[in-house]
Hints:
Bound molecules: iron/sulfur cluster
Distance between the termini of chain B: 45 Å
Number of domains of chain A: 1
CATH topology of chain A: Aconitase, domain 4
Oligomer: heterodimer
Shape of chain B: globular
CATH superfamily of chain A: Aconitase, domain 4
Structural class of chain A: alpha/beta
Number of helices of chain A: 8
Distance between the termini of chain A: 33 Å
Number of helices of chain B: 15
Amino acid sequence: MDKFTSLKGIVTPLDRSNVDTDAIIPKQFLKSIKRSGFGPNLFDDWRYMDTGEPGMDNSTRPLNPDFVLNQDRFKGASILLARKNFGCGSSREHAPWALQDYGFRVIIAPSFADIFFNNCFKNGVLPIVLDASVVDQLFNEVDASPGYQLDVDLDAQTITTPGGNVISFEVDAFRKHCLLNGLDDISLTLQHVDDIKAYEQRRRQDTPWLF
Amino acid sequence: MVGKTLYDKLWDAHVVRTEEDGTTLLYIDRHLVHEVTSPQAFEGLRMAGRPLWRASANLATADHNVPTTDRSKGIADPVSRLQVETLDQNCNEFGITEFDMHDPRQGIVHVIGPEQGATLPGMTLVCGDSHTSTHGALGALAFGIGTSEVEHALATQCLIQKKSKSMLVSVDGQAGNGITAKDIVLAIIGELGTAGGTGYAIEFGGDAIRALSIEGRMTVCNMAIEAGARAGIVAVDEKTINYVRGRPYAPKEDVWEKAVKVWNELHSDENVEFDHVVRINAADIKPQVTWGTSPEMVVAVDARVPDPAEERDTVKREGMQAALAYMDLQANTPVNEINVDKVFIGSCTNSRIEDMRAAAQVAKGRKVASNIKLAMVVPGSGLVKKQAEAEGLDKIFTDAGFEWREPGCSMCLAMNADRLEPGERCASTSNRNFEGRQGQGGRTHLVSPAMAAAAAVTGHFVDVRELEGGVANG
Ligand code: SF4
């Protein structure tokens, strides 16, 4: 997994609540058996004027000029500012894959859906929960100043605004550790093979129907 | 001694180890696998040279991409076909039992688990699919995971988890005649909101839940995720035990007796404290219809489409306006004046035999209305289909003008050929009315199977209890 330590980047505001995983990456792209290449189809229905299908040349498709991702001032953004319950809906990890492939490494919202939140950490994407009022304030600031950037420091658990305002955020200690060091969950778990085997042995006795 | 919730009991029984901060290695008894969220996980195992931990804990099927029409011709879309073939190959290579597209037991992963007895009370069960919460209806701790976790479960038979908070949703009293599990769960989501259950495992209780069949409880737990909760559970009772008895993967003879003893303990202790309790009066629930693009945007069939002008919260109001625009609806329109173009009866929410029966009761002796372009019934599994045909339900549907299809996810998410065209309006028994869910530009209204059938035969939404000629009680 990619490490995440700190990042300074342009912020794209996505001003809708309950953005679901179908919107983040529509189902027709889930037919891929690969893990990469989803970036061009991130928010496909909103981003393009036509209907996207796998295998299309996305560079020649008509863009929706009203959609934020297509606006020049947000080119090269790496931080997505969103509203409540971001990532609700399906468990598809294609959603964080698409966000990451596009270039987003940080998503800030007042709340996230559980499975999506979890999937982000497994892919080197940092989801940050901030108070709705703070998120509101950030939306206003982004709106008011083109080129708006935030400075995110995972180790210090802070976000610094261009005006020098420092906002702290919470992050689960274990997840932070994994993200800072780019650790792979499976190898961590496999350090406990003996525990798993002992557990299985006990359960085979007590609940044989499960084996 | 402090009592335990059902969730505590299920959790505690599966802890392999816990770190100081509560991060837990949780053992997973059953892993269900389908074609969409598994290819990258198997590829990950291969790349790291890791073996599968325990093949017998896994059961696989192809459901999302499979055609619901004649399968002998294979899958027309080459991209879908490759994904389904990749599952077949991976299951072969790793020695996992798979009900492939041509197996009579094939079906939607959440239908076949319980049907086979592969889902048992007291289990932990995961699947790379958010509606895994369905299996909680049997008193199992079941939740959806992403592909990285699918790989983790394949490689270690465990997951790294933190315990959720506990919520009790108690549906008290008796639901009225003709009110189904789908109406109950839509009413619950209307009350909780789509994020109300975030961070919680929800236990559904109360007399109205106890009164539901296991299949009805599956419908309720299925949609726990639409309230934001990863898991929904219902305590084990006689109905649970009777449901499981005799199924192919269920324990037999003395092991069965032993298991039943353990399963009978699977309920929350009396007077235990939940982190949050929500009470709903079953008698207040009417047939439900969603009007917007989120399952929480739901009203009773006799109500009107809500008016954003009456919403004070700006973000909410804008959300409502966007939803009405997408759905092409005017505020204050009576719900029963909304015409539909297509009807879809199916999905892991409502494609079990009871659902087929409920829809057939309404369809019986009637005809699909002339404004309906397509009314399709898609059973949840090959075995549901067989059973329905043995009961003559297929004939009732086809006589009425419905199409009777092969099992799969179908138009629930339109990954196969079944989909809405832009602008089409659908009465659907599935679980998500998100923008584009059933096809780009398609408009979805979530309802129960009986309500979907009633919309099919009248051409618009209607309170199924008030259908002319009535509906036989069954
Ligand atoms: S029926 Fe729909 S919700 Fe259920 S597993 Fe299939 S696609 Fe997902």
